[in-house]
Amino acid sequence: MREGSLPSEVISIQQIQALGVNAADIKKLTDTGIHTIGQLLQMPVRKLLLVKGLSEAKVEKIREAAKKLGGEKGSFRSAIDVLRADESRIRITTGSKELDAVLGGGIETGSLTEVFGEFRTGKTQLCHTLSVTSQLDAEQGGGMGRVIVIDTEGSYRPERVAKIAEARFGLDPTSVLDNIRVARIYNVDDQIDSNFAIAAMLAEEEEPTRLIIVDSVMNLFRTDYCGRGELAERQQRLNQYLGGLKKIAEEFAVAVVLVNQVTANPDSTFAGADAKKPIGGHVLAHASTVRVYLRKGKGEQRIAKIYDSPTMPEADAVFALAEGGVVDAE
Questions:
Q1: Distance (Å, whole) CA 83 – CA 6
Q2: One domain, residues 181 and 276
Q3: Where are the alpha helices (DSSP H) in the chain?
Q4: Model pTM greater than 0.85?
Q5: Does 155 reside within a domain?
Q6: What is the distance of C-alpha 186 from the center of its chain?
Q7: At 85, is the pLDDT very low, low, confident or very high (cuts 50, 70, 90)?
């Protein structure tokens, strides 16, 4: 894979037309958000049968064509092949060497990283910084790619990103902002549907996207679903949304950062329990590959704790918020 390109295994859904699949049937798939062979093979057959105009015979023909191009999803690989794939993932610097170290090198592509904490702990400032660093060259710890922002709170500030880009990294702020696509989302339905728009962009554009920011992931789910009577439906739809994001992250080698809120922990009276816990329940906990807890320190200092990670131990990192975004604490 050349630097800055999409993963070589990403194959456009349009290629199954050469194997005898009708163009009209391919359009039905793209209209439902399926743009690559990988997405098609990840889709359960029962959901494909819900697509209007696709019979059981057509679905079988489409899947057979996809398997010829993309192989069997879920087929076995040796552990060494899995390891090599993991080692090839890009890690995007947070702007702080100490924070990068506890994360194993930075924010990892192909994964969902959840960042949670109270207000003014640096969550959105981290996103502003990552919006710039993800565009840097690999030698600078960057991802050499574009950024997509799903803004559910109205907290994303392009002027802040521009200042970080120019003052700290000496980049042209106009060029940096031109590489960032922002969607202001106001309800859960549009938030879930944004996955389809993201997949379409990533499949069609030649320039790679390396980072997707969702700030915040739970805000609209808390607003649109109230009370215990709607909790089951909320969690079901949240699971659907996060599952879609995880597939996008893996398919397109994109890092996904989920900003999350916290609530009081009723178990905090017990020894060793935190006073705050992330919202979203077990659904969000299991979907996130890495979970990072931010809290306030002295002055502009902030403390990041690795709350959960499959590869890194629990550890703290101290960083600071400055004009240049997230930086190492002095």
A1: 19
A2: yes
A3: 23-31, 37-42, 45-48, 56-70, 79-87, 97-102, 123-133, 158-163, 173-178, 188-204, 219-224, 231-252, 281-287
A4: yes
A5: yes
A6: 19
A7: confident
